[in-house]
């Protein structure tokens, strides 16, 4: 199967969680919007008409099937790429964890856009500073503490045991992104999550992920994506 991933070409964003799964599995895929006329193709796929058009990127085309929403894409890909448990309850558990990651991703985005995405960051600096403070005081300990405890109680190298799933790859991305967006805050907080930092390092050392991170396929973090670095928010 050759997969087609559709996502905005200049940012990692939510599409990166899908890219990491495809890269870890060594899957044959095309990052369509980064190719010539790829953006036009992506926009045509979203036109409302017959069928089941996706609302927004990311979405994945596998043969005639089109699957939208990051967690839904990973629910589909996980068993096919060997990145999800085989039993149904295991698949649902990993999907549940990915949905929790999706909630965290939204809260990360809202640190710099608390009043909504239609306004520029410069129009909401004050509320962003307040939201970022609350995010680090209340939300980060809750989310990352939850995953840290899961790792500790599981006793394995990854969240579900000795083999990685797509949610382990997603947690790697969370750590990477928070290190970029809030380097000072994250450096201080990392002492509270040694298990997650170990998980991050194991994922980064996996051969396919290591090769991907060193390639031009990995888009650099920037201030157009979900993880954005603003010095005034990283106090």
UniProtKB/TrEMBL annotation:
GO terms for molecular function: glutathione transferase activity. CDD domains: GST_C_Sigma_like, GST_N_Sigma_like. GO terms for biological process: glutathione metabolic process. Keywords: Transferase. The keyword Transferase applies. Residues 87-233 form the GST C-terminal domain. InterPro entries: Glutathione-S-Trfase_C-like, Glutathione-S-Trfase_C_sf, Glutathione_S-Trfase_N, GST_C, GST_superfamily, Thioredoxin-like_sf. Residues 1-85 form the GST N-terminal domain. This is Glutathione S-transferase.
